[in-house]
Amino acid sequence: MYDYIKGVVTRITPEYIVMEQGGIGYQLNTPNPYAFHQSEELVQVFTHLQVREDAHVLFGFTSLEQRELFRKLIQVSGIGPKGALAIVGSGTPNAVVTAIEQEDEKFLVKFPGVGKKTARQMILDLKGKLDQFLENIDLKSAEDELPLFGVNAYQHELDEAMLALAALGYSERELEKVTKILADDENLTTTEAYMKQALKLLLKQQ
């Protein structure tokens, strides 16, 4: 029904953004809300509408490729929109596609809500059908910024990232394992940067 919305981002939360267009604020669930920035600049977001008995839910993506990968994933039995967002939001679609092609269940079960049965189903349903996504998708990178001196100079940004990751389905126990590492990394200065690094660490955990 909606292919994309072009408007201004008026609110950013750990789970969704609000985009205003034509006097209407659209709530869009996204893989990484902090890939967006609240400003008066017009941005284009590709959308997917999920129709349920109790609600109509809009999902937003920074690229067409992100949205199409999301749509492929939600067709797999056992993967709902939340789980698909976590996979797309990992920022490592090439690794996901490679894992599916190589039948690497050990890698796939690292995502929230993906057990061995669902990983096997992903391989059965998607192997050989995702080549178009290789080298095409990545979350936007924040511009490099110089870190400030002092402990926890970016604690607010780190806290926001943890809330966003929790919204994607990562457990408190999983997040506790990476929080200390992130807090000690002086190269991380934005919420988006914390999220991207946290996702890399989470996917490396055994």
Automatic annotation (TrEMBL):
Residues 153-206 are annotated as: Domain III. InterPro entries: DNA_helicase_Holl-junc_RuvA_I (IPR013849), Hlx-hairpin-Hlx_DNA-bd_motif (IPR003583), NA-bd_OB-fold (IPR012340), RuvA (IPR000085), RuvA_2-like (IPR010994), RuvA_C (IPR011114), RuvA_C_sf (IPR036267). Belongs to the RuvA family. The keyword Zinc-finger does not apply. HAMAP family: DNA_HJ_migration_RuvA (MF_00031). It comes from Candidatus Kurthia intestinigallinarum. One of its GO terms (cellular component) is Holliday junction helicase complex. It is found in: Cytoplasm. The gene is ruvA. The RuvA-RuvB-RuvC complex processes Holliday junction (HJ) DNA during genetic recombination and DNA repair, while the RuvA-RuvB complex plays an important role in the rescue of blocked DNA replication forks via replication fork reversal (RFR). RuvA specifically binds to HJ cruciform DNA, conferring on it an open structure. The RuvB hexamer acts as an ATP-dependent pump, pulling dsDNA into and through the RuvAB complex. HJ branch migration allows RuvC to scan DNA until it finds its consensus sequence, where it cleaves and resolves the cruciform DNA. Pfam families: HHH_5 (PF14520), RuvA_C (PF07499), RuvA_N (PF01330). Has three domains with a flexible linker between the domains II and III and assumes an 'L' shape. Domain III is highly mobile and contacts RuvB. Residues 71-90, 106-125 form the Helix-hairpin-helix DNA-binding motif class domain. GO terms for molecular function: ATP binding; four-way junction DNA binding; four-way junction helicase activity. Keywords: ATP-binding, Cytoplasm, DNA damage, DNA recombination, DNA repair, DNA-binding, Helicase, Hydrolase, Nucleotide-binding. One of its GO terms (biological process) is DNA repair. Homotetramer. Forms an RuvA(8)-RuvB(12)-Holliday junction (HJ) complex. HJ DNA is sandwiched between 2 RuvA tetramers; dsDNA enters through RuvA and exits via RuvB. An RuvB hexamer assembles on each DNA strand where it exits the tetramer. Each RuvB hexamer is contacted by two RuvA subunits (via domain III) on 2 adjacent RuvB subunits; this complex drives branch migration. In the full resolvosome a probable DNA-RuvA(4)-RuvB(12)-RuvC(2) complex forms which resolves the HJ. This is Holliday junction branch migration complex subunit RuvA.
